[in-house]
Write a structure and sequence with these properties.
Shape: elongated
Oligomer: single chain
Number of domains: 2
Radius of gyration: 30 Å
Largest sheet: none
Structural class: mainly alpha
Helix content: 40-55%
Number of helices: 8
């Protein structure tokens, strides 16, 4: 008795469509009549689309299906597709070089967003709104500090770091109390427990 094991079969090009779709694509390659190939290709595209209904909201969903059909045929399929057929060249092209910002973050545990918020706060006119924003930034800095450093942090250190990051342009009255470290830890624990 001969057994037909998957390990003995040809490798599936796109396993998400399964072996039967792969066989259908291979069958199209054997059909001589181009009109018949076009008809069969459209039928296969319909089946492939019904196998992935969650992808229908993607704008180029149909185009992707036609690309997948070409890939599964090893780029040998000769049909009149509604889109330009993908070629093997796209798989050999190197991606375009991406440039990264070389922005140096002074205090990595605060992150670049804190620095951007401080820049915006510095631009604001003096007044109650600027004071409140500065206090909110300081509280967020304390929270960020405690995320990366599990020790309790003194408010004076946060005030000092805020002055450094703002170039001495943002100050908080030393009598101001930021959120208590223990309260921040409690809130974190509550969020973790809710997720479970």
């Amino acid at each position: 008795m001969d057994y037909d094991y998957n390990t003995q079969r040809n490798r599936l090009v796109l396993p998400e469509y399964g072996r039967n779709i792969q066989r259908m694509v291979e069958h199209i390659l054997t059909v001589d009549d181009k009109e018949e190939r076009n008809r069969l290709a459209k039928a296969i595209i319909t089946i492939m689309g019904s196998m992935n209904p969650h992808l229908r909201d993607i704008s180029d969903f149909k185009h992707k299906l036609w690309d997948h059909l070409a890939i599964m045929s090893n780029f040998k399929i000769d049909i009149d597709a509604p889109y330009e057929m993908v070629t093997p060249k796209i798989f050999s092209e190197k991606p375009k070089y991406m440039t990264y910002k070389n922005h140096v973050i002074k205090f990595k545990h605060y992150g670049s967003l804190i620095e951007k918020m401080i820049e915006e706060a510095v631009k604001m006119p003096e007044g109650k709104e600027k004071e409140e924003l500065t206090k909110l930034i300081a509280n967020h800095m304390k929270k960020s500090y405690l995320t990366w450093n599990k020790d309790v942090v003194d408010d004076a250190l946060i005030f000092k770091d805020l002055a450094i990051l703002s170039g001495g342009r943002l100050h908080i009255d030393e009598n101001t109390r930021l959120n208590d470290s223990r309260e921040i830890f409690k809130n974190k624990k509550r969020k973790i427990q809710k997720k479970k």
